[in-house]
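anyone seen this seq b4? input:
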Amino acid sequence: MKNVMVKQLALSILLFLSFYLSSCSPAKTEVIFRPELMYRSPQLDFSKVQAVAVMPVNCYSNEVAELSGLVNDGIPAELKRSQAAWNIISSDDVLRKVNDAGLGRGYQNYIADLNTYATVAGMTPNFTSETQTFFEQLKTAMNFEAILFTSYGYAEKTVMEHSTVSAILGGPSQVAVLKKELSVTVVLYELRTRRSWWVAKLSLETGINSTNAELAKKVIEGTANNFGKGDLRQL
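predicted toks r here
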């Protein structure tokens, strides 16, 4: 009985200190998420591009419909807000043109190539001739020079983390915690040279209670803020 009371007292003190320290600590400034890998081609020439088509977000593993929708809407909007050098064609406009122009087969070829690229190494996707034809048809219909595409994989996994509370109560110091894991690749692909001009890879691991809106916000801001390593915002 005495041991139980001691453990309960220790837990109460720990919770009080945690609350006190968090309430007294200064508010943290939110830091925009930065990709852990970025590639900028020596061929990148902003003056050669007037318009970029933002392709619909593609998921190669465990799609989350709400997350896809938020990123789909958010990336074009954030790029329009953060720069005025390029005309940004939204993914909704791209899909509308694909349907109106009967380019569905070409779009399916593009997705198949993109899924292959997302799961292998390399900076530039190896788009097939069928996909290249689709790009040319879409380019003619919409008048742009480059595309920006986003592909992601989502997973939920269990990891072992240190737990001070559990250790104080006499339990294991390592406890199983469920996490969300998001891997994102964003690429600016120039159609004339058929090369990737800019690539960013982002990996997020968050608690299971993180909302899709919070995950999407990190992807959107991280992409737009570091687009072209930030050079585009200076134009």
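The two ends are 71 Å apart (CA to CA). Residues 36-226 form a domain with the Rossmann fold fold (CATH 3.40.50.10610). kinda curious what u guys think
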